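tool_call: predict_structure(chain=1)
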Amino acid sequence: MLEQLQAFFQSLTQNRDQRPSFAPDDIRIAVAGLCLQVMDADGVIHAAEREKLRSILREQYQLDEPSLNALLEEGARAESEAVDYYRFTSDLKRALNDEQRQQLIGILWDIVYADGTRSEMEDHAIWRVAELLGVSGRDRVHARQGAKSRSGLTGNDDA
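tool_result:
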């Protein structure tokens, strides 16, 4: 009986070690959750947007595949519980400096342009997030133009 109990506790420890976890207040969860909210702003999450998000998170945070999957799972859980953008932006505004907040807006635009289009709903979502983060309209537009340029899209949608 004692051996079974020890085996049970060891299995709990082993499973925990194999599955990466993030503290509930880990700012990376807020970033992932916010990105997921913006991705869903137009009602359609494209495979290209998902892959762009995975690529960005992997690169920004130097995550291996299990850690990336765990972060996305935690971000999705937080996003499903969030009522609005403020849930994430309030934490992010405190944790990030001005340059990092501007970079985050650029990342959101990169995700929006990943599917080759920009919808009015996505535009509005990023406008709202930028306002909540304290990123100026000018910096938001510069971030959008940079993301559009990186995406290789042409055309004049910079109004």
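agent: The longest helix spans residues 2-18. Proceeding to next step.
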